[in-house]
Amino acid sequence: MIYLDHASTTPLSEGVKKAMSEAMANFGNPSSLHQAGRQVKSGVESARRELALSLGCEPAELFFTSGATESLNMALDAALDESKKTRVYCSAMEHHAVLDRVRHLSENGRIDWIQIANDAQGRLDTSFIEETEKGDVVVMMAHNNELGTANPIDQMAQWALDKNLVFICDAVQTASWQPIDLQTWKGVQGLALSAHKFNGPKGAGVLFWRSTRRLRAVFHGGAQERSLRPGTENVIGISGLRRAWKELHEEADARRDRLHALRKELEDRFEKGGPIQPTVPYRSGDHPGIVNVTVPFEGKTSMLLFRLDMAGICISEGSACSSGSSSGSHVIRALGVDRSGTASLRISFSHLTRAEELQNALDTLEAVIAG
Ligand SMILES: Cc1ncc(COP(=O)(O)O)c(C=O)c1O
User: Which residue blocks in 220-320 are alpha helix, DSSP H?
Assistant: First the structure.
């Protein structure tokens, strides 16, 4: 099998498996006051401190959640103004974790959703910033999970500070290859991370929420996570997340170099021509491990993916969360280009991918579309 769907999820590293199996042996409830509980609690708090140190925030500003979907939903709820309809700016290319919540809030009259425009290459039109006012909310992903395109987060964080906006950043795809520094991104109010995108476990995420603004409890229960995200902590998941984060930072430079080298080989291949071409051009700062390609193909993209799967190649059309939807990728649709007679596929790889795997997959794709 050739696995080229790392933007969807990544394999657990051996170190993460070991950390998680050790955590399984310590079964205490972190809220218990006895030693079995205290020992587990200390692991959870060490994870929070380590993460805070590397992100450049306070441990009290980090909340462990079930993943980025939950983190983003919590952030959006907390960003709303209770006394009036809030204006929320976000593009149609955000992940469903954001889009579906925004749509829901909009349908319920809680917000005015103002769409940030984008061009045919997936780049955002930032002129919307001129019309924003104090208290408006902006949600922007740092890297698009289907195209790999980078959004202007440095600039956005500065605008948020200058204009008193509530800026929520979905950094899910960014964490796997770029350091995140919340000291630099002072204007970021909330930020979401997900462990399974950087070789950690599924069901373990983080919400950063700057302490200058109140976070609201989405549901009610115990005193865990300062009563804002109650329920007994996913201690095994948190221990895997902690280990994955440590490995990510220890190997950051090597992983990034590897991704750039793999991407260079791909770009060289595209430049030579042939039926497989990038859907949008690659620019400096884009995620090197995510490439969306367009190929000539009549028929359903799912059929193409099925044939690739039969040939042992795992790639996807886009976000795993919308697979099964018959309308195709909302991100590709948002590019507004007529793509009849073609199919667009997302190939995503990591430091674990071998160059031959990428080339073999592309050779197979060429053979499949040639019929
Ligand atoms: C950009 C982006 N945001 C949010 C999510 C949701 O993350 P999770 O699976 O942790 O809920 C994903 C997962 O695919 C993603 O790629």
Answer: 235-250, 252-271, 301-310
Q: Which string of DSSP letters, residue by residue, matches 322-369? A: GTT-TT--HHHHHTT---TTEEEEEEE--TT--HHHHHHHHHHHHHHH
Give residue 326's pLDDT: 54
SS3 state of residue 276: coil
pLDDT for res 263: 98
- Cα dihedral 196→191→293→298 (10° resolution): 90
172 CB less than 6 Å from ligand 1?
yes
Is 267 exposed, middle or buried, given 0-12, 13-18 or 19+ CB atoms closer than 10 A? middle
According to the 3-state scheme, what is the secondary structure of 105-128? HHHCCCEEEEEECECCCCCECHHH
- Tokens 């204009």 -> residue: 163
Answer whether 318 contacts ligand 1 (Cβ < 6 A). Answer: no
- What residues are labeled active site? 321
Task: Provide the CATH topology of domain 2-10+252-369.
Answer: Aspartate Aminotransferase, domain 1 (3.90.1150)
* Per-domain residue ranges of the chain: 2-10+252-369, 14-250
For residue 11, give Cα distances in angstroms to 3, 15, 74, 259: 10, 11, 27, 16
| 308 three-class SS | helix
**Among the listed ranges 218-222, 264-268, 333-337, which one has the minimum average pLDDT value?**
218-222
Estimate the crossing angle of helix 35-55 against helix 235-250, to 10 degrees: 40
- pTM of the full predicted structure? 0.96
* Number of residues that this document lists for the chain: 371
pLDDT tens sequence across 92-133: 999 999 999 999 999 999 999 999 999 999 999 999 999 999
Query: What are the pLDDT digits (tens) for 201-216?
Result: 999 999 999 999 999 8
Going from the Cα of 158 to the center of ligand 1, the distance in angstroms, rounded, reads 25
Burial class (CB in 10 A: 0-12, 13-18, 19+), 234: buried
The CATH code of the domain at 14-250 is: 3.40.640.10
CA of 246 relative to ligand 1 center, distance in Å: 20
